[in-house]
């Protein structure tokens, strides 16, 4: 068994999952993979099994937060030292995993978030998205006390301390943004690493432009609630 | 005896009776009925004792004493629904933990089946 676990939360990702798994196997051969099937109605579970990776299949759809937490519980129970969150939609690139691991291994951070915006890349967000991203990163940077550029990035790596923390408590609704606030309050060190990302290869983003504003308000509210929690 | 008083007594007595009956039949857990019992009792006392109702109404500046009954009932309903929201939150957290545990157990079961080469090592399908 390896000491690195890659957690792939997947909800109806039968199209993109095989490519993602192949990508990971060729670029990160030294890591175990766990697909958390979040109550998919398509053949996500079967597709993952065919490739031969471990699958934890939830009996109903919990949402990304509950699914990721399942992965962290698996990592905790099986003694993994490092857990990597990797999307099942093909957006993330396995070749970039190393960028996340270096700061963790050097002990410079407890969590490393892959940021699309630290490197000149192909990612060109729409205008509204750009505004949202700017607001998020301004607010989050103020709260965390360090500059963060890509707050909604779901490409991240965490060490054992954070695995244990997340296995116990992980936010449900907007986990990417909220988890950073929770970790900061728990005294963990957060770092960003520049990574490239692709446009989605299959499926549909959960955030459509129309819902962006609504989404943003809800996330900011959730963040402020997190700040008031004991 | 005026009609408001009769209605108020009948109303609060019915609530109390229904709650007690549900508890007796095991349809309502005691834990979730305390607030109901308490509010039913308070409403019944206020309905029975005109003097007490009028005294409290005067103290808080309510001119028509029976409106105090509405106010009290409203506050109790608010408390009860709030209590339920808290209970539901607790339940959904427990439900999530169970779902996660099931997913992890299924995974462990698959692994055991695979390594022991059980005949027809079918993956644990979702119900």
Total discrete domains of chain A: 1
Strand content of chain B: under 5%
- Apparent shape of chain B: elongated
Count of DSSP-assigned helices of chain B: 4
- The helix content of chain B is over 70%
Order of helices and strands of chain B: HHHH
Describe what you observe in this structure.
- The complex is a heterodimer of chains A (230) and B (127).
- Chain A is built from eight helices and seven strands, in the order βαβαβαβαβαβααβα.
- With 230 residues, chain A is an alpha/beta fold.
- Chain A has a single domain (4-228), classed as Spore Coat Polysaccharide Biosynthesis Protein SpsA, Chain A.
- In chain A, strands 3-2-1-4-6-5-7 form a seven-stranded mixed sheet, sandwiched between helices.
- The radius of gyration of chain A is 16 Å and the shape is globular.
- By secondary structure, chain B is mostly helical.
- In chain B, 81% of the residues lie in helices and 0% in strands.
- Chain B has one domain (3-114).
- Classes of the chains: A alpha/beta (230), B mainly alpha (127).
- At the A-B interface, β2, α2, β3 and α3 of A face α4 of B.
């Amino acid at each position: 068994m390896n000491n690195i676990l890659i957690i792939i939360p997947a909800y109806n990702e039968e199209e993109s999952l095989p490519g993602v798994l192949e990508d990971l196997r060729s670029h990160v051969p030294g890591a175990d993979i766990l697909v958390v099937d979040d109550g998919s109605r398509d053949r996500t579970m079967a597709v993952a099994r065919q490739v031969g990776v471990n699958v934890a299949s939830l009996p109903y759809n919990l949402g990304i937060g509950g699914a990721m937490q399942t992965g962290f519980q698996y990592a905790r129970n099986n003694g993994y030292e490092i857990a990597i969150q990797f999307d099942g939609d093909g957006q993330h690139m396995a070749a970039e995993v190393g960028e996340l691991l270096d700061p963790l291994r050097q002990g410079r951070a407890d969590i490393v978030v892959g940021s699309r915006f630290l490197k000149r890349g192909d990612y060109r967000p729409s205008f509204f998205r750009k505004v949202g991203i700017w607001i998020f990163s301004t607010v989050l940077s103020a709260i965390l006390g360090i500059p963060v550029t890509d707050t909604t990035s779901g490409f991240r790596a965490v060490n054992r301390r954070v695995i244990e923390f997340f296995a116990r408590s992980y936010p449900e609704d907007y986990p990417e943004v909220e988890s950073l606030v929770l970790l900061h309050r728990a005294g963990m060190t957060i770092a960003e690493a520049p990574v490239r990302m692709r446009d989605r290869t299959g499926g549909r983003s959960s955030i459509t432009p129309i819902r962006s504003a609504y989404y943003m308000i809800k996330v900011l509210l959730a963040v402020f609630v997190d700040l008031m929690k004991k | 005896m005026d009609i408001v008083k009769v209605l108020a007594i009948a109303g609060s007595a019915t609530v109390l009776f229904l709650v007690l009956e549900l508890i007796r039949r095991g349809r309502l857990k005691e834990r979730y009925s305390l607030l109901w019992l308490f509010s039913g009792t308070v409403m019944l006392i206020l309905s029975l004792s005109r003097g007490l109702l009028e005294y409290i109404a005067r103290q808080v500046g309510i001119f028509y004493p029976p409106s105090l009954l509405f106010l009290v009932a409203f506050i109790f309903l608010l408390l009860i629904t709030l209590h339920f929201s808290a209970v539901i939150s607790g339940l959904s957290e427990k439900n999530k933990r169970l779902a996660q545990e099931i997913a992890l157990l299924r995974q462990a079961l698959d692994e055991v089946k695979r390594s022991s080469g059980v005949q027809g090592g079918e993956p644990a399908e979702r119900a």
